[in-house]
């Protein structure tokens, strides 16, 4: 396996139009990176970053995209568009080893035979449950949207909703402490929703490392920071449109960071070499680790 860092050649960095075309163009970037390999099949996973954030303030380093790749095949270094730095990638792993990780994933859950975005599903699920438990359904329009549920909660009896949210947020110490300093009803609702999303994402990621019937187990478990609190953070949720495929096509991504322990070397190698989750062709799935 090979680990590579790929960025635009210096003569192209000055082209703001090229930078603008590449940034956020998951479909186009995948095709350009594919030109680095001889294989007709996708043999790599990758992740896009901003060069200045990764390399610091150096000459000719600006806001252009930079890509990390893990591939079965060594990428070509004579590409006219990219500078390619590459090295052999054979990390020494053992059961019980602890590493920090960083992974951008496309998290989905299957409901009634259909794939749903974990983050959006978690938001809607919390809002629907809150409105039902507070018996506020009568105030909803026909075929309500997510914004309708929020509106009902924010315009109901504030004391009653506040008590409900306060009770829910106590399950999440970090958010509870934050909301003690900013206790508006809107902030408390948004904070409780985010805590619920974090919980669902932690459950989703944890399942990737556990043995599962008819699914790949990636051989890891999350570590506790404090009793009952995993070393796990969720950030950077983003929707990526793919108009090249169809008008409403696209996928979501979210960044996950934390600390984990390896429980199965062969499974964990699959996570490192093949990636985790869906949308790998569009920059999701690459698991980056550090001792």
Describe the protein in words.
- The chain has 291 residues and is α+β, with helices and mostly antiparallel strands.
- The protein has three domains: 2-88, Crispr-associated protein, domain 1 (Alpha-Beta Plaits), CATH 3.30.70; 98-116 and 214-290, Crispr-associated protein, domain 2 (Alpha-Beta Plaits, 2-Layer Sandwich); 122-199, no CATH class.
- It has helices at residues 10-13, 16-22, 26-34, 51-55, 118-133, 146-155, 158-169, 173-180, 185-209, 265-274; strands at residues 2-8, 44-50, 65-71, 82-88, 98-105, 108-111, 114-117, 220-222, 224-226, 229-230, 232-241, 250-262, 287-290.
- The strands form four sheets. Strands 5, 8, 11, 12 and 13 form a five-stranded antiparallel β-sheet that branches. The protein has a four-stranded antiparallel β-sheet with strand order 2-3-1-4. It has a two-stranded antiparallel ribbon with strand order 6-7.
- Strand 6 (108-111) and strand 7 form a beta hairpin.
- The longest helix has 25 residues, at 185-209.
- The radius of gyration is 22 Å and the shape is globular.
- It starts with a strand and ends with a strand.
* CATH topology grouping of the largest domain: Alpha-Beta Plaits
SSE ordering: EHHHEHEEEEEHHHHHEEEEEHE
Shape: globular
How many DSSP-defined strands?
Answer: 13
Q: Which stretches are poorly predicted, pLDDT < 50 over at least 5 residues? A: none
Oligomeric state as shown: single chain
* Strand composition percent: 25-35%
Question: How many structural domains does the protein architecture include?
Answer: 3
Structural class: alpha+beta
């Amino acid at each position: 396996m090979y680990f590579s860092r790929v960025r635009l050649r210096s003569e192209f960095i000055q082209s703001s139009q090229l930078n603008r075309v590449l940034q956020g163009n998951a479909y186009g970037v995948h095709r350009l990176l594919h030109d680095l390999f001889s294989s007709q099949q996708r043999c790599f996973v990758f992740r896009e970053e901003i060069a200045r954030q990764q390399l610091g303030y150096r000459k000719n380093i600006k806001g252009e995209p930079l890509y990390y790749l893990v591939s079965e095949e060594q990428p070509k270094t004579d590409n006219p568009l990219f500078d390619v730095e590459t090295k052999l990638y054979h990390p020494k792993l053992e059961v019980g080893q602890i590493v920090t990780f960083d992974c951008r994933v496309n998290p989905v859950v299957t409901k009634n035979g259909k794939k749903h975005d974990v983050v959006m599903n978690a938001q809607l699920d919390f809002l629907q449950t809150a409105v039902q438990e507070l018996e506020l359904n009568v105030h909803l329009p026909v075929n309500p949207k997510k914004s309708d549920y929020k509106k009902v909660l924010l315009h109901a009896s504030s004391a009653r909703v506040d008590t409900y949210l306060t009770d829910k947020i106590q399950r999440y110490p970090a958010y509870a402490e934050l909301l003690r300093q900013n206790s508006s009803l809107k902030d408390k609702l948004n904070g409780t929703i985010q805590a619920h999303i974090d919980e669902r994402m932690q459950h989703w990621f944890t399942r990737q490392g556990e043995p599962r019937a008819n699914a790949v187990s990636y051989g890891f478990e999350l570590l506790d920071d404090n009793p009952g609190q995993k070393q796990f953070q969720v950030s950077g949720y983003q929707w990526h449109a793919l108009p090249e495929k169809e008008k409403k096509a696209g996928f979501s991504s979210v960044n996950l960071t934390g600390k984990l322990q390896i429980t199965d070397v062969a499974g964990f190698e699959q996570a490192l070499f093949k990636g985790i989750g869906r949308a790998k062709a569009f920059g999701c799935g690459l698991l980056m680790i550090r001792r």
